[in-house]
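pls design
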């Protein structure tokens, strides 16, 4: 019975998690803390902090943690399956729509505008992630330019660029 509850809970959360990674946290808390008592409030807050440390989708990490705690490996698998089904079905549906209507001028124009909006948001996030005073320092300008060139004009994997800058940053004083 607990596996069914895990499935329904994470399916429902996935279905209504619109607007980004943190939008589903109140839904998740209500079900796994308040309704089923699978996690305590303190544990929920600890897991919320912990999932930020690891790469990947927050919903997957919550489903894995909660499912495993409640029902072991089977629970983790069921919670993640439920968590993944909604986006999988939505993507299948949208791919079919896209393939059917992608050549319409309105669709082409819509995607072109969305690309511009996403570009603007990426730039905005980039500016929020950095102290703008850093950008006037010579070494910072060099790092930004070198990383930009590596990313844009080479096949060096971005993870290697990030690791290299971390290592260099460890040894260079501010």
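designed seq:
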């Amino acid at each position: 019975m607990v596996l069914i509850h895990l499935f329904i809970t994470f399916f429902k959360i996935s279905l209504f998690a619109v607007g980004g990674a943190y939008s589903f946290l109140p839904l998740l808390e209500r079900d796994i803390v308040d309704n089923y008592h699978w996690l305590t409030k303190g544990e929920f807050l600890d897991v919320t902090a912990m999932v930020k440390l690891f790469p990947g989708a927050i919903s997957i990490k919550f489903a894995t943690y909660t499912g495993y705690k409640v029902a072991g490996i089977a629970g983790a698998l069921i919670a993640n399956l439920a968590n993944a089904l909604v986006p999988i079905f939505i993507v299948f549906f949208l791919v079919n729509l896209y393939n059917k209507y992608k050549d319409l001028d309105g669709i082409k124009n819509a995607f072109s505008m969305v690309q511009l909006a996403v570009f603007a948001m990426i730039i905005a996030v980039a500016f929020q992630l950095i102290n703008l005073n850093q950008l006037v320092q010579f070494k910072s300008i060099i790092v930004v330019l070198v990383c930009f060139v590596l990313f844009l004009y080479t096949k060096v994997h971005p993870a290697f660029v990030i690791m290299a800058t971390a290592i260099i940053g460890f040894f260079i004083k501010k």
